[in-house]
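Translate sequence into structure tokens.
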Amino acid sequence: QVQLVESGGGLVQAGGSLRLSCAASGRTGSPYVMGWFRQAPGKERDFVAVISWSGGNTNYADSVKGRFTISKDNAKNTIYLQMNSLKPEDTAVYYCAVKRGWTTSRAGYEYDYWGQGTQVTVSS
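Result follows.
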């Protein structure tokens, strides 16, 4: 069983920044990829960003491209999401997820493990 713990969410004004962290523990194995998804109340869960095992490849949703940066520290089994220039429409619960294998994916159903989520609220 893989455990994922997100942290770093909170309340921020529009234009501000937050950095989310996600630490993985348990039987993660190698290789695997990790990514971020988000879900607003009454909305579908949306892809945000994903990073490859090596950290050399990243993909972002168009809505966050240029504002968010995903990174990782393999020694710590941890990924980060630096969120800048936050907008009210970024308000959501943000989830960390793990997918076994080499290939990154934007599809939530392809991920094998999920964290509990951390709330991000952006006020206008």
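Note: Residues 3 and 76 are 13 Å apart (CA to CA).
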